[in-house]
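Input set for joint prediction.
Command: fold jointly, output tokens.
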Amino acid sequence: MTEPMIEVDGVSKWFGDVVAVSEVSFTVGAGVTALLGPNGAGKSTMLRLLCGLVAPDRGRLRVLGRDPRVDLDVLRHIGLVPQQETVFESQDALEFVRLAAVLHGVDGPDAAARSALATVELDPDDRRRLSTYSRGMRQRVKVAQAIVGNPTVIVLDEPLTGLDPRQRRHMTELFHAFGDQGRCVIVSSHVLEEVERFGSNVLVIAQGRLAAEGDFRAIRDLMDDRPHRLRIRTDQPHRVAGHLLAAGTIMGIEMVDADTVLVETTEVAAFRRSVAAVARQVDAHLWEVVPLDDDLDSVFRYLVGRP
Amino acid sequence: MIAPSVSPAPAPAPGAARARPGGVFLAIYRLVLRNQVTTGRIVAVAALGLLGVLLGFGLAASDPVDPVDAGTNLIDRYGLQVLVPVVALVFASSTLGDLVDDRTLVYLWLRPVPRVTVAAAAALAAFTVCLPAVTVPLVLSALLTGAGSALVGGTAVAAAVGVAGYVGMFTALGIRFRRALVWGLAYILLWEGFVANASRTASRLSLRAYTRSVVSEYTGIGLDQANLSLAVAIAVPLLVAAVMVLLTARRLASADID
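tokens >
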């Protein structure tokens, strides 16, 4: 793990009787980290806490070693793409991003704004008001205002909303490029396909609590109480599965068709070691061994308790 | 596909680059000024101003026995009790209130800019719009009454200090309450209209007492609650404006930003 740029220690936040974030602790370093959770899980509140937009009711939160709620200087190093679509409707894109540059104290705000808009593939000379922009274009303008100050920490709340597939790919590459430069990029999403493109490092929030953090494949491996499901394709599925079952390597079998069997195991490492040996032993041809639930979707469903 | 070209990450050296205070103030001032001037507001305020002018014209046409007394009461009842506070409420409560309502305040808040700069720029933007919006029709109205230069001068000064005080107050109200217009009207109608009339102490907590005192001092016509010296009547609303700007800044620093 790289040096932490964000440190969250026992942070809770509630609005009236509603607990939005409860006793959350994690650290995040350079690179892209996906903040994952269902709608209403507390993702946006967590991101607002990280930016100092709301104060934690309990716990301690530091960005680059300082409290973003009270330390104005650290805001110079934070760029946020908020979830809401609204922008300053009467401005054009260049004015909007230039304003952000001026407020950040960027030298040459005009050039910086033009560069940021070009980075998100918008025309700096487009003089149309932002009120006329499509959802996707607004989203890109929001990204431009977040990056114009060259921030070290970039926080993006559902940044791909409204973008077409090509723009989504471009933005994903852009976020990775920022991460590769040593910046801390936190991207929230409830769309799992998006998150998988951001990388494997995730923070999973469910019902205001941090359900898991780290590489989602490693998280899956650590979930010992949940049997892993794998699909085996072989010319002798009964014999292979039978031997594995007899050896105690697997705990369940489901025949799918003449050459395919689904197995369940809590001992993935042992299974991986023994499946080829068993196939050799019974003289079977092993065509395919595929894990069915170590993708992000499965991990997510397990963690948030969805069927 | 070619990877996107991006600037290298800066070393985290907080405080290395500073925003130029004058440039930041002007940028926020211009933004707020532009945002608050909407067609609906301009039409409403122009209609109120026009009504003031017509009232002055009507008063002159009625040929009053004492034009100074009649003119002073007209400026007090319509100008200082209605036009000044209502126009200030409409614009000042929206300066930051609109940004809260449409959730764009985050684009000003999440910047390394002192909150007092944001508050002062917003209040000044409202003052810039409100001052001509109330002073021009009221001075015109005072002129039309034929009451003389004392009423014209008193009207101009009272309107200006009143706008300053009310703008400061309603800018703070806009950041504090979601329904700032309702709260503002409640202050104007209930507090200034009723409660302030009940006692001398309560009247001192009403900006109307100060603006009335200014006009009264200029024209020599006695008005209810108008028992303050000119210096106090001018200084207190300005002080209120300054204090309210500081309270707005404090509120900005402590509020949850959506």
